[in-house]
Fold this protein.
Amino acid sequence: MNLQGWKAGDQIAGRFELVEELGVGGMGAVWRATQLNLGRDLALKLLLPEYSASPGARARFEREARVASALKHQNAVQIFDFGEDDGQLFIAMELLEGVTLRSIVDEHLPVQPLERVVRILSQISEVLLFAHEMHLVHRDLKPENVFLERTPQGEDRVVVVDFGLAFIRGRKNSGRLTQAGIAMGTPDYMSPEQAAGDDDVGPPTDVYSLGCMLYEMLTTRVPFTGNSVQVITQQLFSAPTPPSELQRDVPIPRELEDLCLRMLSKRAAERPAMDIVHGLLTHADPTSDARERGRDRTYLEGRAARMISTVRPAKHAQTLSDVHAAPSGMEPVQLAVVGELSGDLTLGLGANGLLAYIVSHEQPLDGADAIFAPDATPEALQDLKERGVPLLTDAATGDMSRVTELLRAGVDEVVNRPIRAEDLSKKVWRAIRRHRRRNTG
């Protein structure tokens, strides 16, 4: 029996049987457990007994479950159940098998290959972008809160954990429960606004913390070192040494270093938004398109079907329903293409529920659900952005300068050349989903 009084074989709520304790931290203990009715292994988080009588602790624990369950994303932990058994609060969640990012990132360990660095950071930025679109801010990003699982294909599945300090901006019942004026987070990864004790921190805080992690993965050390007071002071007032001056053994692409330093800007308004960070990291990852193609197609199409609820009829579309029907469960949407599109690509888009048609800059686009403008200039894209629908374009793989320029012009997604139908389709659906979410509040 452990100090909390739980032991292997104990049952919680008559549905979960404890197998072994995995760890204790904060207000909870995490156990490997078996869900009896399904016979599956999962992780069961239990509120520690010393906090069970505290209304504040119970509210925090319940809120953690609510926030985590709202974040349904492949790079976030899946929540199965939440409840109370004779005063004992519990959260049943996905059991992660692997290691934390801290196990591979440390000043005593060798720097990771650049491809793996951007691959890991790209996945982190993707789930953070998803969270920010829900008005959810993590506020405690650090390597210890990033989990790495190996997929059957031998790749990293990155999972961001511990949204215990996270809060949903603008929602009274999900707001943060910390005392105003108290800096929350870990000093090595704390944003200047957190270090200053600002009461209201937003998505730029996560951008800064992710920048600290990118810096550490490029150099094996955090931007600022010293005791907690020294680090907090430097977070507020000192500029970090450029990564390339600390890591001379492994060349660091200039665009990646520039991105890292911009993410570490002292002023929140000067940091790039998470969608730009994600776009640049994804474009810098040469395996991102292949990884997306390797995911289960049924899962992707199911997500796409849930993204779209209604479709406006296109006034100028060439109907492709006679050529290729949309996949089962998906309502087709209209994709206006300002430029050229091959027949094979058109058919491939149709197979993914996208009815593509060619238009010129001058033609009305009232019926379009999204616009794809391949090889367009930033100036042309700015004009198209005024149409009020998701806008996509393309860029050569690795051309981060163009991607930066395009994202600043307001493009929602950038597709790598050569263009594949499944890659473009995925990004169109994602852009439409994001657009619909923003418009519905």
Q: What stands out?
A: Residues 170-183, 289-330 have pLDDT under 50 and may be disordered. DSSP finds 14 helices and 16 strands in the chain.
